[in-house]
Amino acid sequence: MAARFALLLLVTVGAALAALPDLGYPGWQCDASLYQKSKKVPTSAHSVRFSDIKVIGALGDSLTAANGAGAPKGDPLAVILQYRGLAFQCGGDSSLDEHVTVANVLKKFSPNLMGYSTGIGSANVWEVSKLNQAVPGAEAVDTITQARALVQIIQSHKEIDYKNDWKLVNIFIGANDMCAYCNDGENGAHSKAQWKQNVITAVQILKDNLPRTIVSMTGMFDMRMLRQIDHDKYFCDGLHTFECPCEKNKAFTNDLVSAACHRYMDAQLEIQNSGIFDTTDDFTFVVQPFFNGITIPPLKPDGEVNLDWFAPDCFHFSKLGHANVAKHLWNNIVQPVGSKNTIVNLSDPTIPLNCPDTKCPFFRTTKNSLDCSKYMTA
Ligand SMILES: *[C@@H]1O[C@H](CO)[C@@H](O)[C@H](O)[C@H]1NC(C)=O
Questions:
Q1: Whole-model pTM?
Q2: At 23, phi and psi to the nearest 5?
Q3: Which of 304, 345, 350, 351, when mutated, tests ligand 1's pocket best, judged by the most ligand atoms within 8 Å of its CB?
Q4: Structural domains of the chain in order of their starting residue, each with its CATH number
Q5: Percent of the chain having pLDDT more than 70?
Q6: Distance 22 CA to ligand 1 centre (A)
Q7: Angle, CA of 18, 81 and 229, to the nearest 5°
């Protein structure tokens, strides 16, 4: 008995100690001019150099809180832990050399960047979470509460000059809405119209209260992909029934899932293209659509799903998954609106991390993508 216990302990400790695969980008170097701040702090959201960004924050659900990202293989219970320091949008653990996140890329341009998360903990633990206000289980309607919380923290924090500092707020939301969508479809609380209105309400709170802010919204993904991950994996199958009821609803076919996800994608573009968040010069809203066209999960060379990419529940992203997604999100950020990738190859870890364009060295917005020369500054 004792021996068996000891063996079990060894196996557990062994599993916990085996380093999880990760993806860093050592030695990343862009043109020297791109590391310089603007001569004067820009007043227009369309003239913001990456070195001008002082504050980073995020709104979202468990994918932004990075649930399970650092969970050892075979330990699905660790999916309850929020590994915010590893989160693709706002995590700041280690550095770009070891782990790609949008915050770790930005640190290269703006070494005093603040607001990124480190370590493990929930949104209300300031030392861990900082300005990542994502909450596991959140639907679009919940980003309204998160937006209010973010405003309150930014306006009251001594280290932030909220009127003058440029802020980047990343949003990724929609998976949990989709997990409930099958109940009432386009007639209910998760319809495209309602989802869109909830996003607008949240972003409007940011616009009304946070001058000098760029909102970067990660495009919705096609959740058809999820069903292929847990196919034949009984354990994950069972977990997903609990985590995402609509995923297990046979009447909600892959085509219906896909169509519903695409409605949310359309809503995001409508919000961006309507210009409702471009009515003042010091605020803007941009969609990063790299996920849109992906229908299959990342694969190994032998064609099997690459589970290194996912946390032990086969749903959340692992550390490697966060880094890979972050690379594609960053590459989308530096592409002009209108020519951003709407599909990427998640199976190819060798895709490079791109530099901003020296001819338009700004955070790309709808306006500077149309004509950058209007927004050129020294
Ligand atoms: C994606 O990348 C993998 C690995 O490099 C490659 O085998 C596959 O053909 C690529 N898929 C597409 C659609 O380019």
A1: 0.94
A2: -135, 115
A3: 345
A4: 32-375 (3.40.50.1110)
A5: 92
A6: 19
A7: 70
